[in-house]
């Protein structure tokens, strides 16, 4: 049984202290097949993603006969609205409001998928570098595993306490399609956070994170829900920033993360 109120009360302090926290199961075992089916329909093209689909690992040449190195699909809930009616959205919203405040609302969502043996890491970065300047910087991304995620197939790595420091300078990846910053697994405080299928980990918008490439025989499917205060969502939209819903810009937009 999933008891959201108990789970988040135990992790709120860890989230505040470390910038990330495992929040336990948000998808019940019996519901995983429903989410996986929708996910596979996106990957196969049965649910058309159009320009919302891209390769987060496009800076590395693809192996012949493979699809994207790291498939990223923005706004799956806008492309397939029934997703919002499933249990995850209500549970994740409750977690987000406990972690960043009762005014939290869903800002955007995305799927990030790693095929077997693609082996391409997601570059180190801080999400806030992608976002416009915010007077209220509260934000939380809730990363939900649809498969068991470990170090070898691409679980998340975070740098403990990095959310309390200034944003690092970010720069475009070698192909100019995404961004990255300098960091490594040897950074003090860097730690992997393995999770089981259906479980989630939450991180702030300013927490350094990355994941290794998938070097296993299995797939690694993740669904990410992103939250911030409702007033800040209106602030973004007034500036034309909607995380790829109507505009498709993957660049440094936060002035604090711009390289000098």
UniProtKB/TrEMBL annotation:
InterPro entries: Phytyl_CoA_dOase-like
UniProt-annotated stretches for the region Disordered: 238-260
Gene3D superfamilies: q2cbj1_9rhob like domain
Lineage: Bacteria, Bacillati, Actinomycetota, Actinomycetes, Kitasatosporales
Stored Pfam families: PhyH
Cited PANTHER family: PHYTANOYL-COA DIOXYGENASE DOMAIN CONTAINING 1 (PTHR20883), PHYTANOYL-COA HYDROXYLASE (PTHR20883:SF46)
Name of the protein in question: Phytanoyl-CoA dioxygenase family protein
């Amino acid at each position: 049984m999933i008891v959201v109120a108990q789970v988040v009360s135990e992790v709120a302090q860890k989230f505040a202290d470390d910038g990330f926290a495992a929040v336990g199961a948000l998808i019940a075992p019996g519901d995983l097949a429903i989410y996986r089916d929708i996910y596979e329909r996106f990957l196969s093209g049965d649910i058309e993603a159009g320009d919302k689909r891209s390769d987060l690992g496009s800076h590395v040449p693809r192996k012949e006969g493979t699809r994207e190195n790291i498939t990223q699909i923005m706004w799956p809930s806008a492309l397939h609205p029934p997703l919002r009616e499933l249990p995850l959205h209500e549970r994740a919203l409750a977690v987000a409001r406990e972690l960043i405040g009762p005014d939290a609302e869903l800002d955007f969502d995305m799927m990030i998928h790693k095929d077997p043996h693609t082996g391409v890491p997601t570059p180190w970065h801080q999400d806030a570098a992608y976002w416009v300047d915010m007077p209220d910087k509260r934000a939380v991304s809730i990363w939900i595993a649809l498969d068991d995620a470990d170090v070898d197939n691409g679980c998340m790595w975070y740098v403990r306490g990095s959310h309390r420091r200034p944003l690092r300078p970010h720069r475009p990846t070698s192909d100019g399609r995404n961004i990255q910053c300098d960091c490594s697994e040897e950074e003090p405080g860097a730690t992997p956070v393995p999770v089981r299928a259906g479980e989630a980990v939450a991180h702030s918008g300013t927490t350094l994170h990355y994941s290794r490439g998938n070097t296993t025989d299995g797939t690694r499917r993740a669904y990410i829900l992103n939250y911030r205060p409702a007033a800040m969502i209106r602030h973004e939209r007034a500036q034309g920033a909607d995380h790829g819903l109507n505009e498709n810009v993957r660049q440094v937009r936060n002035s604090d993360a711009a390289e000098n």
